[in-house]
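Workshop exercise sheet. Pairs work together: one partner reads the sequence aloud, the other fills in the structure field after running the prediction. Swap roles for the next sheet.
Pair: D.N. / O.F.
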Amino acid sequence: MDAAITHWINSFAGQTPLLDPMMVAITQVGVPIIVLLVVVQWWVREDRTHVRHVAICAGLAFLLGLAINQGVLLFIHRVRPYDAGVSHLLIAKSADWSFPSDHATASMSVAMAFALQGLPRRALAFFAMAFLVCLSRVYVGTHYVTDVLGGTATGFLGAIIVRLLYRENTRLDRFATSIL
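Structure field:
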C-alpha cells in the first residue's frame, strides 16, 4: 500500500509543467525558509520573551529530531523509491537511506514546537509549510509516504522531549532569550 500511494503521488511528476518546478523548489528551499522564519521570530514585538523561548525550542527540536533520525538510520536501511522502481526522480539522487525523511523531521519538529508552546496561528502556518515540504518529498520521487510519516514522528518526538526538558523562565532560558 505504501508503494502504491507513493507511486500515485509521484505519478503526477513530469505531467504538469507548472507543478513540477514548484514542488522541486519546495523540496529544495522549504526547510531553509522555515528555519529563516523561525529566526525572524526572534525580533517580533508581541510577547517577545515567550516567542523567543519558542524559537529556541523549535531549534532544539529540529536538532534533536535530526539526531534521532541518525540513530534510526543505524538500524533501518531502506532503499529509496526511485532505486526500487516505484518513483520517477525529479531531483538529484540522495546518498543516504530513505527512512526516515530528514526534511519531514526538520519541518514538522518546528511546527510541533510552536503548537506545544501555545502559539496556534504560527503553528498552523508552520504545519502548512511542513505539509508542503513532506508532500514535495514524495512528489519529486525521493521518499515513500511512510518515510515522511516516520520523519514526522521523529520530529514530533523531538519537539515533545524539548517541551518536557527545556522549561520557560529557567535561568538558562532567561539568559538565552535576553540575547540581542
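Discussion prompt: The helical segments are 2-10, 19-40, 48-73, 102-116, 120-139, 145-165, 171-177. What would you look at next?
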